[in-house]
Here is the input.
Amino acid sequence: MDSVLIRCFKCDAKNLLPVQQLSGDVRCQLCGLQVFQHQKAGIDSHLEEELCSYCNSNVDPDKIKSHNDVCDMYPINCRFCNREFIRQTMNVHERECDRNLRWCKYSPIGCQFQGTQLETEKHEVGNFHGELVMKLLLNLQTEQSSNATVLARSLNELMSLKDDNSRRNSSAGVECQDVSPSNNECCIKMKAKQDNMEEIISKQEIKIEQQTDELMAQNTQWKHEYGIDSLVKDMFDQQSEKVQRLEESLTTCWTVIEELTKQQTEQCDKVENHENTLNAVITANNCLTKSVAEDKKFLSNKMDDLSRKQNDLEDDLARDKDKLDKNCTQQNEMRQQLEKVENNCNKKVDEMELAWTNKRSSFEFVWKVENFARVQQSAKSGTRTVVYSDPFYSSEFGYKMRLMLYPNGNGACTGTHLSIYRQMMKGRNDAVLKWPIEYTGDVTILDQLNYKEHHSYKIESDLIKFREYYAKPINEFNTGVGFPAFISLEKLKPLYLVDDAIFIKLEIKMN
Here is the structure.
């Protein structure tokens, strides 16, 4: 059943009420201050919120999936190594991931290799870039020659154009002095065009000088960035070293060949000596063969004797084997009987372990409240509004707790309902138990008339809303949690209140 926790602003008391009971105003159970006014829309909107399990922020249940798509603490997989990281740190990891593809540092001069950090470092150490460097060097030299030619041609054209304009300017001035006033306007226009042309030429000269400086600076920068001069020199030095090593290897090979020729001559002499020795050995071997034939005949006679003895032994072995087979049959029968006994023992042990496990993980507690009329009258008069059961443990070394009963109701349910709460207490074994406690179960008021219409409520540890109620007690007991409106007082008779007594049963199963 969904419940709502309401805190008093005056005494800081906490009241746990079912949502279905919030149909009117609610007052604090301790000080009586009004702490709630019925506002259905506000409560519903609060109950609809859920807590994100990754970033602990409140999220609309309908938007949980879209929230996970943007949540900074949501785990996602790296697209390179498939390892899992939270979204907030994924960008940093991808930049440092060992399996992220990187370009070769010689890519600006044409190398197209891509690979992981280890593969790229191995590739850059190899001699794969000599041709690219030479090609770049030739292109730079060609480009420099072409740029120098273009610049020289442009400067010559500009100088010629400037001289022509100067001559035209001088001749135009003389003509303007000789012309009549009617042609003065034409001279002025021509002079303006000449001035405009000189301005354009000056701008072109400045632009060409700037481009020349830029080309020279770019050339210097390329030499500095790629180390072309030093790289080519290093390549030439490496080739020279390789040639020198090859010459040294060739000299060594000739020395080895001469040594092998000398050894071959010595081997031929040794072979001739071995042939002479072998002939002597063959002669001795013929004599030995004759002796072996005589020994073979002697051994054949011995083998016949041994064969007869072997037959006798095989007959004895056959008789012993029959006896052994009988013994094996008896042992197999005994082994089967032992296996049956062992299986029965294992089955009984499993049953005992299961029973012991169930006994440790679940328990029942029945509380009989006698003299209910007197207890309820004390609650109505305010003398004793709450009754406590005897403390009990969930098992021999388990959790300590007790039940709380408000005979005349509690809070907003005073005078209308029976209120029942569960309360965790400080126990002797708290130091070795798991906290907060997690369990499920039922709270039941028993039917004493028909024994089948019991009135029950499901209970479960809510560690999100009411975690502090199930935490390890710091004081003698925690705040109680339960049902203010457990059952209407009008429904107690005749099923549940019999002989001025009621029975409350608590069933709990540990998770």
